[in-house]
Design a protein that fits this description.
Order of helices and strands: EEHEHEHEHEHHEHHEHEHEEHE
Low-confidence stretches: 1-12
Strand content: 15-25%
CATH architecture of the largest domain: 3-Layer(aba) Sandwich
Number of domains: 2
Oligomer: single chain
Number of strands: 12
Largest sheet: 6 strands, parallel
Mean pLDDT: 89
Length: 282
């Protein structure tokens, strides 16, 4: 006979899983995003993927880029099974994000130029936008300006050379300060420029050098912290996200090519915490 005062045992709730976040870029720029996520969400499992076989994305046409990102992400998701995907590339985000979100079931976070926070910070209403030539000229960038900074003067500079300088820095080659001064000079030609947007994920990797090359103090803005906050908001409640702990773990890194300069690339990635390098064929 069943005692009505005794309730049947309920199955224990399973412990929440450790969140796995895939950070994806064509080169090493996404490391700036990964670093912010690692600091903001200590203890989550991070995986970095670098489509170095197709680097750089900024020189590719839109149709070619969408097909490439689709191909690589399919292969990576099959191998890694992440809980969330961060497309840590402004070019890929502004071109391929709608396609990615329509074709993948995983939550996807993209990176866009930090025009909104820059407009909040700027007192003079004169803002510099430093990006790749593709991002500078994309209609999506103009839409962000029209929506969030319609009263601001935006000075745009597009540079592919700065991307290469960031890649070289990771491989142990220090950027030429004079070259950096030359690249950013147009942004400071207007004496009222008080805020500068680093609108390519590669550029925060050179922030110390860019600050040293700047002719005067200025507010520097990028998307890293905002992306980290967005990732955390999507993961909270579904995964074990330790708070106020030190992340002792490194991260796995996937490449799409292992070529002549891969030893230098591997050394640079390991300096950021990569512990294992793998390749995925795409």
């Amino acid at each position: 006979m069943t005692n009505p005062d005794v309730q049947p045992a309920q199955p224990a709730n399973p412990a929440p899983s450790k969140a796995r976040v895939l950070v994806f870029d064509s080169g090493v720029g996404g490391l700036s995003i990964l670093t912010e996520i690692r600091q903001y969400i200590p203890g989550c499992e991070l995986v970095y993927a670098c489509d170095n076989a197709a680097f750089p994305y900024g020189t590719k046409g839109e149709e070619e880029l969408v097909k490439r990102v689709d191909l690589v992400l399919k292969a990576l998701i099959a191998q890694i099974d992440p809980d969330i995907v961060v497309v840590a590339c402004n070019t890929a985000s502004t071109v391929a994000l709608p396609h990615i979100r329509n074709h993948f079931h995983k939550p996807v976070v993209g990176v866009v130029p930090a025009i909104k926070p820059a407009a909040r910070l700027s007192q003079s209403r004169v803002i510099g936008l430093l990006a790749t030539p593709a991002t500078v000229s994309r209609p999506y960038t103009q839409q962000l300006i029209d929506e969030f900074a319609p009263d601001c003067t935006i000075i745009r500079v597009g540079s592919t050379e700065l991307v290469q300088l960031a890649e070289q820095k990771l491989r142990g080659l220090a950027p030429d300060p004079e070259k950096l001064r030359e690249i950013i000079a147009p942004l400071f030609a207007n004496p009222h420029t008080d805020t500068l947007i680093l609108a390519c994920t590669h550029f925060p990797l050179l922030r110390a050098e860019l600050e040293a090359a700047a002719p005067r103090a200025i507010q520097w803005v990028d998307s890293g912290a905002a992306i980290a906050r967005r990732v955390k908001s999507l993961l909270e409640g579904n995964h074990h996200l330790p708070v106020n702990t030190i992340d002792q773990d490194g991260f796995d890194c996937w490449l799409t090519s292992y070529g002549n300069d891969s030893a230098a690339l591997a050394a640079g990635l390991k300096s950021y915490g990569a512990t294992t390098l793998k390749t995925v064929n795409c």
